Amino acid sequence: MTSGDHTGIELNLEDKNDWELEQIEIELLLEGIHRFYGYDFRNYALPSLRRRIWHHVHAEGLTTISALQDKVLHERSCFERLVHNLSIPVTEMFRDPNLFLTFRQKVIPLLRTYPYIRIWHAGCSTGEEVYSMAILLHEEGLYDKARIYATDMNSRSLQQAKEGVFDIKRMKQYTKNYLEAGGKQSFSEYYTAKYNSVIFQPFLKKNMIFAEHNLATDRSFNEFNVIFCRNVMIYFNDELRNHVHGLFHESLSHFGILVLGAKESIHFTNFSDSYEALDRTEKIYRKIK
Hints:
CATH class of the largest domain: Alpha Beta
Strand order of the largest sheet: 6-2-1-7-8-10-9
Shape: globular
Helix content: 40-55%
CATH superfamily of the largest domain: Vaccinia Virus protein VP39
Distance between the termini: 65 Å
C-alpha cells in the first residue's frame, strides 16, 4: 500500500466521522428543542433541515451545531429565531393562480350547498393564502357563512398574518396572480396603501381565526369542509407525512376537500384510498371514506 492510498483512507474515515458527528449534533439539537420547548422537528427531511440549521449557526455567529444547541436552550430569543428559520415562511397571494381558478370552478359549487363552511389553512405562514381565500369567498358570495382557521407554528409569521400588512412592492405580482385566478374586481379595492406597505380591508378579517398549531405535535381541533396545506409536507419525512395526513383525515368532514401543494400527493400515504381526485393536476382531493 502506498502512502497516498493510506492518506486517502484516512481522509475518507475523517469525512465519515465528521458526518456521523454532525448527525449526532443535529439529533441532540432537535431532541433538546422537543423536550424543552415542545416543538418537534425530529421527523423533518434531513437535507433541508441540515441546510437551515447551518445557515442559522452562521447567522448567530457560531461555528458548531453544538454551540447552537447551547444557545437555543439558554436563550429563548435564539430559539424563536431558529423556529422562524425552520418553519419556512414562503408564500404569496393567489400563489399558483390556476389552483385558485380551479377551486372556483370545481369546489365553490360544492360549498354553495353547505349551510356553513369551515376552512383550515394549515401552515398559513404570513397569511397571504388566507387573504386570498377570503377575497375568493367574498366574490363568490360565500364569505358571510364561512370561517377561515389560519394556523402556523411560527408566532412571528402568525402575527404578521393577523395584522394583514404586506410590502407594497409585491402588489404588482399579487394583482397579476389575482387576475389569473379569476378575480372579478380591481384588486386594489381590497387594500389601502400607506408608505411602503398595504393593509387589507378590515372586512376580510372578520371571519378569520388565527392560532398557533404544530402539525407534528398538536391534535385535531374542529371538523372542516376544506383543508389547505400546500408546500408544507415536502419538508417532512414519510413518518411525519403520514401522521399529518392522519390528522387531516380525522379533521375533514365526509366529502371534505383536501388541497395540497404542486409537489405533494395523497399517493404513497396510508390514506390514498380515502380520497378521490377532483383535479389531479392541481392536487385537489375529496374525502370519500
